[in-house]
Amino acid sequence: MTRIVGVAGQPIGHSLSPLIHGAWIAAAGLDARYEAFEPADEDAFAALAERVRAGELTGLNVTAPFKEAAFALADGVSDTARRCGSANLLVRRGAGLWADSTDGRGLLAALAEQAPGLDLAEAPVVVLGAGGAARAAVAALIEARAQVTVVNRSQNRAKALAADLGAMVGGAEAVRDARLIVNALSVQPELDMTALRPDAVLMDMSYRPVVTPFLTAGRARGLTTVDGLAMLIGQARPSFEAFFGVAPPAVDVRTLALEAAS
Length: 262
Fold this sequence. Notes:
12 strands, six-stranded parallel sheet
């Protein structure tokens, strides 16, 4: 029987996940397909999650705005998802729904790939934003023993995130000394690149476009940059293993994704 997996979000038309997983499925010779689902609201998303619980769907990746709903609907959650308070992966485990968050693993994989000289242990790191994406980033970076400061326009949201995960809260001045600055905002930040340390690494969690204005400005300064596409592929690998019980085949999905995004 053909196994059906997919990604759920609103909107979802921009997602490169079907292309990435589809390439892996084809290369692995699996009888499966990866679809994009666009639930109209949380009730529709809950109905989609029930299809996973019932075994009709093998599993789901979950993106905005349903990550918190995915966490709340699950019968069991990973420690990582619990720290994030959200989930981007739902699979059936036993007779119940299991939730996990692979975003943090994707972030760390992207850093290892595109900024291999960066040692996160005790490094001063700034995360811009205090939403769900920022929460996943902060959780992963703290687990990697970085010294994380959250910078966000809403101090209350930043303080709540920091208190939950053990980070610090700072203002715009915090970026000057940061070894790594991660943009987890839904908009592009405006930073004075000349004020940053010369060995700073910039990462943008967005991948549309792959080279965002934030990264373009960093490259013009000569800084190392890490893009959101590397993170997307990094979080997709453990998702694929959770769906099918095998590692993704050695396929150059980045080139395929870049061609599709251009």
